[in-house]
């Protein structure tokens, strides 16, 4: 009866799910790699001509079409087929009013510096994953650090995607209402961002399961040590009594 | 006339200024006439932006005014739970305190989301409308409303932190009392053992 009344805990559930994953180390490393790749592709949006698919916002005027990403902006005149791409901060004010305006919006409202911080955390997580194989003596410390950095990357990326979603949608509505231009929110950027954030969360959960199993092993070791120390104390007690009898 | 001072944003033309709040719009004309309505169909000085579209496409879809009503309800329930917990006999119940702390965290989160939505959406909209170079409409952010939103979030955060600290201190005190009781129980076999040994010696 005592076995059936064991308490339910979320960490126990995570550990049980972790036991069902085949090859959890390879699986978690693949998840981290996919999340990092999606993140890098999101950062490179609108920096080159071929990467405007993952744009954040597309603004059309009578004369130009501007695609804005997190760090880049692309400008294309209506009557020409060529497209000019630049970083956000390198865009000159004199070349085009709409491109400069949208670049200023992306830098001031979307806060892509937050995405740069996410890239730092995710790269640190990958470095820690590599260190698990280079220095396996400290695998517990590397795993805990991986859990921390990937959780931070997940939360910061979710915050960044929320900010980008709200601000880009509001900017698009403002552009449409004033009649300056026709603006449309880029769905692919949102999809890439949320997939990346979800995969960082999966990686964190898998490492939480690993950490739980390690803690369970440590608890078992401590209980065994306590049992042996109890036997040792008992032996000392018997020895003391024998000593007292002998003296008398 | 006080409701026109705490607007989310304002649109200014040469003829009039429109203050847009969560549920109300106020038009201040050039001859100092102030008219406040939930919704305006047209404004004499404003021709390029439709106020109906401002309300239906921006306020309802982006700012989400239902969220501030929701936050108000959550904070109201949390405040009522605090009032109920301060009554002499009911305050000792354990689950009321847990409910109050959960509600406090929930109200913090809802006000945070409300303030983020309002600030980010209105800032982006104001930047999109611009400073009147092209269509002679100047948009500006309502700073008083934003300051009020963030101050209320700060106060709710302070309340939540205080409640958490009080709960931690109370539970720690209970643990210390339990430890003292256990120690006083453990001391009894030691005394009996010493009495037994003295009996054996005699």
Outline the structure in words.
- The complex is a heterodimer of chains A (248) and B (202).
- With 248 residues, chain A is of the alpha+beta class.
- Chain A has a single domain (23-242), classed as Butyryl-CoA Dehydrogenase, subunit A, domain 3 (Up-down Bundle), CATH 1.20.140.
- Chain A contains six helices and five strands.
- Chain A has helices at 10-20, 24-43, 97-110, 113-134, 139-178, 187-247, and strands at residues 57-60, 64-68, 72-77, 84-87, 182-185.
- In chain A, strands 4-3-2-1-5 form a five-stranded antiparallel β-sheet.
- In chain A, helix 3 crosses helix 5 (139-178), helix 4 packs antiparallel against helix 5 (139-178) and helix 5 runs antiparallel to helix 6.
- The longest helix of chain A has 61 residues, at 187-247.
- The radius of gyration of chain A is 28 Å and the shape is elongated.
- Chain B has a five-stranded antiparallel β-sheet with strand order 4-3-2-1-5, covered by helices on one side.
- In chain B, a hairpin with a 4-residue loop joins strand 2 and strand 3 (25-28).
- Chain B is built from four helices and five strands.
- Chain B is 63% helix and 10% strand.
- Chain B is elongated.
- The longest helix of chain B is centred in the C-terminal third of the chain and has 59 residues, at 143-201.
- Chain B is of the alpha+beta class and 202 residues long.
- Mean pLDDT of chain B is 82; it is low at 196-202.
- Chain B has helices spanning 51-63, 66-85, 94-129, 143-201; strands at residues 9-12, 17-20, 25-28, 34-37, 138-141.
- The A-B interface holds A 101, 104-105, 108-109, 162-163, 166-180, 183 and B 48-50, 53-54, 57-58, 61-62, 116-117, 120-130, 134-135, 137.
